[in-house]
Amino acid sequence: MNNLKKILIATDFSEQSQFSISRAIDIAKTTKAELIIMHVAQKDFFDKIIMGIIPLANKIFMKPKEYATQLLKSQIKELSRHKLKIHYVVVASSHPAIKILQYVRSHKIDLLVIGAHGKYSIHDWFVGTTAEYITRKTICPVLIVKKLPKKTYQKILVPVDFSAASRMALQFAGQLFSKKNLHILHVGDHEYADLLKKESNLSKEKLKAMRQAILHFLSDKTKQFIKKCNNKFTRFPHTVKLGYPGTVIIKEAQQLKQDLVVMGTKGHSQMHYIFLGRVASRVLIEIDKDILLVPPT
Prior knowledge:
By secondary structure, the chain is α/β, with parallel strands linked by helices. 45% of the residues lie in helices and 19% in strands.
């Protein structure tokens, strides 16, 4: 992707943060982007992590920022074998999300990469208060890495709702990843499914015909949407389902064995769901896949 020049990785030195660094390196090798590894030093949080790694850390008379700087210097030295342009930055703040977003804006970051923690609890440092705040406020795409990277992304699910936000997400995915790896999903508004349930007085044959007509209509609409995004996407596989978006997206990602889910962070205001909010939050927390959230510009 020619426009991807700067990738920021937010790290807290956890194992999951190392996953995000590995994934960012894979992307940088393809895009030739510059990498910046950032740590926001929080004293209480830093002490908790370091004491678990180095039992004698309490005898090292260093400030958290100084120790983090040493760790990052050592890490970047190890990463030099990748022949990439890698920098680091360490700042102190009790509000990591705000500090990260300030850096994103002031340094014109094109992609932010962060790691997930634990079981992706809403109370985790990144996936929770920090990640959800970032996804609401970010001006650049955010990749949240939950899995140890074993290979480049081979199967990528892109849910769309025909909004400008989902168009941006699809276009970004098409630029950043191999187009042959994309699978597009549209989840028909749950009121379609509710309508079918209400028509209980109709025969099974008529209900089936109504369902097929709705799916055919939405499939044609999905094809038109894909074509408007980019003519090169016209042959991409796509699936249309009826139901609640969060539930369906998670189920489809599991059944299709996707490596990554790419979503726009704001959906169509006239529909009965918005990607940013209950849907994105649920997918972010519950899905065991990496997720890339793309804000509208």
